[in-house]
Structures
1.
Amino acid sequence: MSQENYLIKSNASAKNRKPLQDKVAIVTGSTYGIGFAIARRLAQDGAHVLLCSRKTENVDKAVQQLKEEGLSISGIPCHVGNEKDREKLVAMALVTYGKIDILICNAAVNPFVGPLFETTEEVWKKVFHVNVISTFLLIKLAVPHIQKQGSGSIIICSSVAGYLPQPYIGPYSIAKTSVHGLTNMLAQALRFMNIRVNSLVLGLINTSFSKVILKTPEIESKLIPLGIHRLGEPEECAGIASFLCSEDASYINGENIGVTGGMLGRL
């Protein structure tokens, strides 16, 4: 083969290669909504994706749907707040695919909507345990395996509520502020391993959670003046997640990136 033909063939092969070709990704909280959209997009962009959520029937349904689309998907029930479940999640990724390149921490809870001073100790403990502490512990568990690949990407799904505190979702709002700090801390701790950590600061996305929020007058009255003209769609979060996991984002690290439709503006 001539050098010219070799270069043409090589360029064609590179052009056809997907941005996440043969990467292995874990996506938590991914059987519906934002997590599902991210899992689908990563797989469309060439990744092998392990999705999870707490209910077996939801996992089975999501896996079947995405497999019918011709995507490389597997799934496992997992409550990220449970240590054994986190261990099983990481172990399944290694058994099924042999490695981990990408971790998307999307699973979160918000068990309370109401006045701040009606929150209980149990609510605070649950919100911080799942949204912050368990997120860190899952990342800690996955990092040694991502490090073996020489590079990797971690994304934590956060919320605009972490920047625009809402007393009627007080514990959740403060937990998401903590996630922004966690993102920056992890980025500094892992940058010498060539593992990037970023967060998606999500606005009002068309999910069941946002619909509950908009039905709460005390929250709606503060959010509408911010210029919300429509809800975002889960798929509008998925593209930026895939980009952040790709080589095109190789110099983006420690960022809390707003996907808010204009709710969040910073100088």
2.
Amino acid sequence: MSTGPVSLRPAGHPPVQKPRIGVLLMNLGTPEGTDYWNMRRYLKEFLSDPRVIEVPKAVWWPVLNGIVLTFRPSKSGHAYKTIWNEERNESPLKTVTRAQAEGVARALEERYGAEIVVDWAMRYGHPAVAPAIQRMKDQGCDRILLFPLYPQYSATTTATANDQAFRKLMKMRWQPAVRTVPAYSDEPGYIDALARSVTRHLEGLDWTPDLVLASFHGLPKLYLDRGDPYHCFCVKTARLLRERLGWPEERLRHSFQSRFGKAEWLKPYTDKTVEELARSGVKKIAIIAPGFSADCVETLEEIQGQVRDAFMAAGGEKFTYIPCLNDHPDHIAFLTGMVERELAGWIGAARKAAVAAE
């Protein structure tokens, strides 16, 4: 008469974790504080990445260490200080990314129990990617899905986030199997969530914008010339959003922000565009940032501060910023759906493996 499951492992065999699946949400990064040295550490890691700065090291290194890291930390620190989450003592990007991971984790736990482990990390700064992958491995994850939270693919974002995960994997004796989530610039669920966010926001105003501007993070034009597809994905997102809203072409336009240095970047530039709009008679505008999955210094300080000021100074009268999707239920549902789609074939296999390991 059977008294229960019989272990097939020999006596003295070390404990074996039940196989699980890991999901790692990855965003760009954040400094740990707004002071000079925290900002300097963050900027040095970020601006030392050859995926971000495609300039020969012999040329860029003296500029970075001799000029940029001398003066930029104080300026960037001031910008971060204006939007800092004082309650948690962290940047809004960290606050929102954590909330996104927690939201996706709750949704997956409701459907799959403890089979899936959800964690989050930053490409630059903390929490770092490598420790997150190790935590998943320690919890029995023999399959990991990497999810860079960048709707529009670029080598400077999606690729470098995955690179960082692969660097950790290269050092692991027992690697988990890995998949990566593709960029989602034209996913219907993403476009629908953006459209609903626009509609909700505009319905809450007591005025109607003459125009909505979709502002994406900029990129040096040279990167486009070398084959980076980011520009095309941004333009497509803006077009699909406009079509989903049922608007004519003149009601929603696109632009690019956050340029750095003297080189030509993707055009039209957001700051120049809002100035030209104001001078041409457009007095009321709304701006949305569809390239950001979470609000951050580029949206909360740059758009709501610098860009707004540029528009008003040029003769604008009404300005509003439409927040990122952040951890809104629409966004959590979309992210969860993307995870489930990309885990196809893994979820059931992990469950069977867990049973067999008992």
3.
Amino acid sequence: MDDYKNIYQKNGPIIYPGKIDSLKAFAGKNRVMLTGLFTSDPKITKYTVYWNSRQDSIVVPVKRTKNVDTVKTIISNLPEGIASFEVRTSDTEGHISIPVNIAANVYGALYQSSLLNRGISDAAIQPDGSALIIWADVNKDAGVKFMHIRYADNNDKTHDTLVVSSPTAMVTRLPNFKIGKSLSYRTAFLPEATAIDQFYTDYQSRSVKADVTKLYISNTGPFTRGAFDGNRWGILAAPWVTNATVINHSGYGGYATDSGGSLVMESGWSGSPNIINGKIYQTVTLPAGNYIFQVNNYTEALDPVYVVVASGNTLPDISSLSTALSFKRFSSKLYTDEVIQVPFTLTQSQAVSLGFLSTMQSGNQYWRVTAVSLLSN
């Protein structure tokens, strides 16, 4: 009854070495790491890993000990997608084990292209001089691990800071942040919790909002005067420049005692002359960056009044208003308090004039500004 054995066991019984145990595969960037254990069969001398439908393989020598041996190998230069692996062991006599199979994800350029830097909801200088960064929420499964931030402090020292990500309600404080400077940051992603490689976005610049008024402009409200008529009208103190058409109250104008000291234009009342291309401004040199010229005003003006930011040492006439870097008109509604913001961008350090432009010749009209400020953004 055992005659059939001679057909299938001409060379003796078939022997299988011990197979690799606890085989695991860990995803990576165009690579996969395989780990496993050898718990028995001291005769094992190597194992072979096959992939790509067995068209590719690698042989890894094994030096067994009397204990449980842990082995690890990395398969590189893999295409993005799912990779399947077959592992077989061999012993000193050339016997080959039964296969152990496993699959893993491989990440690459396609995954990299899908990554976006974590958003920043707001970034602003705080009263203590720190920059407060409020991060946009992310899904906890998005794979965001940390943000790598670079910034300069008030001593021009560059800092590289890593902040570990939390999905929601995350804020970061950067101490002693230099006002007027931007930060740059990138985001690190781990595509799977056990992946062996992290992926990074490109560095991205982010401006930090700050009130830079005191750094660049002065006499910002309540406004101070130079010459004064002893009653209500005066001329704004430096560095404000007031052109002659605004000085239309018996040699005074541009300043009034209203609201504790305001920047003012008025025409019509008490026979005060019309104002043609009236200009009040100050000129400063600003570094490259994004800015907002902010104005607190009240208006009874009938004709257009403009808040203007212009290159150079003066403001343009109304006929050339389009040459300004940026401008915005006061509200046309009478008896209105409002805050006007005029954003502008400088690509290089340059002189700019910040101020007000109006032609007022339609009867009695008046407007005042109680405060101005300059914000970096």
